[in-house]
Amino acid sequence: MRFYTLILASVFLSTSVMADDTETQDPITEVGVVKIEWQNPKKFRDIKTSNERQSRFEARLFETLTKNLDKEVTKTLKPNQKLEMQVSNLDLAGDMRPTFGATTGDLRIIKDLYPPRMTFTYQVLEGDKVVVAGDEKLVDMTFMNNVRNRNHKPFQYETVMLKNWFNKTVAPQVN
């Protein structure tokens, strides 16, 4: 009887693992004039959470970055233009460190040594026409100096990096 229980348990475990593997649809976030496709986030360099369910953390991360970028982009783009991005890699500022039981989760240590990084392609569309397009591999080595107001908003370093990129690279080409 114990043998059959073990076999049954292993079957349930293997089917639940296979169910997780089949869920490979890339998340897409869209806010205002910004649409971002997050390509295979499980392979991103570092988007680990410290004390939250990973899927919930990723949804919050992607939505926050999209919303924050939209606030900047809408200042520049014409009413009939939109920005589309396909993010292939993301590394949040800082590094996750285990606490070995001192707290309920790991801690993200923010130091100059661990800058935010992002790899993506983008295009600005006016209707169906591509106005600007390109590939980017962003690294913000001065991220600790760029955030003047240390109000600890979620994903502030990544938001500033994206806003700076947009204003320096895309905005001059659109205007």
Describe the structure.
By secondary structure, this protein is α+β, with helices and mostly antiparallel strands. Helix content is 37%, strand content 27%. β6 (117-126) and β7 form a beta hairpin. It is globular and about 55 Å long.
Quick summary:
The chain has 175 residues and is α+β, with helices and mostly antiparallel strands. The chain has 4 helices and 7 strands. This is DUF3016 domain-containing protein.
Strand order of the largest sheet: 1-2-3-6-7
**Could you tell me how far the N terminus lies from the C terminus, measured between alpha carbons in angstroms?**
74 Å
Helical proportion, percent range: 25-40%
Sheet of most strands = 5 strands, mixed
Total helical elements? 4
Uncertain segments are 3-22
- The rounded Rg comes to 20 Å
Number of strands: 7
Shape call = globular
Report the β-strand fraction as a percent range: 25-35%
Strand and helix order:
HEEHEEEEEHH
Rounded mean pLDDT is 86
Oligomer description: single chain
List its salient traits.
alpha+beta; signal; five-stranded mixed beta sheet; 4 helices; DUF3016; DUF3016 domain-containing protein; 27% strand; two-stranded antiparallel ribbon
Which secondary structure elements does this structure contain, and how are they paired or packed?
Elements: H1 2-22, E1 28-31, E2 34-38, H2 54-73, E3 81-91, E4 95-97, E5 107-109, E6 117-126, E7 129-139, H3 143-146, H4 156-174
Parallel strand pairs: 2-3
Antiparallel strand pairs: 1-2, 3-6, 4-5, 6-7
Helix pairs in contact: 2-4
